[in-house]
């Protein structure tokens, strides 16, 4: 089995930065290390009708000065073949339920999993694209506007992530559940850990020997046994693979 190479972003946007620009150095370094200058972009998380071209152009425009060539999977007559030929895969944000449903419909779940885990193709996810890289999409923040055949996802990693993680606001008058409370509900019925990724952060995975929190904000690890623990940027989170 080849080394898995993953860059899992909490989001594509970060306050004070243009689209993807806060993650430019991470993306460029990640792809350069993996000798990939061509990126297959998968826009299936977009719920807006006929928007795949617009979404892909947004990514292409952001990366145009990075010496990276971006192709949308919808531009290929055969999505499975496009994944088989991909030098790098990037799945963007949007609605996680719609994204996973479409990946199953296009017969891409096993194909992407094989390319990443068996062939070492680098994978970049952002928001919904990060959600589907995990064990399941049970900890997404999105509304279920579409129904995938299962909530189990690409399973490139054996734990879950909650992108866009938000801390409880002190003295808030909001009476609904906090993000932490919702994750606690998840752990009543599920045992795998959940990484709460705040915006501006990412998890960089190099095989099982390196899983590093990078970015501008600390992260929170939730587990059934220990409730939650805070981890600063540059923390080694490889222990999540053994949970």
From TrEMBL:
Instruction: Give me the reactions it catalyses.
Output: Dipeptidase E catalyzes the hydrolysis of dipeptides Asp-|-Xaa. It does not act on peptides with N-terminal Glu, Asn or Gln, nor does it cleave isoaspartyl peptides
A GO term, aspect molecular function: dipeptidase activity
Which keywords belong to this entry? Cytoplasm, Dipeptidase, Hydrolase, Protease, Serine protease
**What GO terms describe the biological role, i.e. biological process, of this protein?**
proteolysis
Its domain of life reads: Eukaryota
Report the EC number(s), separated by commas if there are several.
Answer: 3.4.13.21
Pfam assignment, any one: Peptidase_S51
Residue ranges annotated as coiled coil are none
Q: Which SUPFAM superfamilies match?
A: Class I glutamine amidotransferase-like
One Gene Ontology cellular component annotation?
A: cytoplasm
> Which InterPro entries does its entry note?
Class_I_gatase-like (IPR029062), Peptidase_S51 (IPR005320)
Q: Hydrolase among the record's keywords?
A: yes
Q: Where in the cell is it found?
A: Cytoplasm
UniProt main location, coarse: cytoplasm
Please name the top-level EC class of this enzyme: hydrolase
Question: Which family does this protein fall into?
Answer: Belongs to the peptidase S51 family.
Q: What is the protein named?
A: dipeptidase E
Species in which this protein is naturally found: Clunio marinus
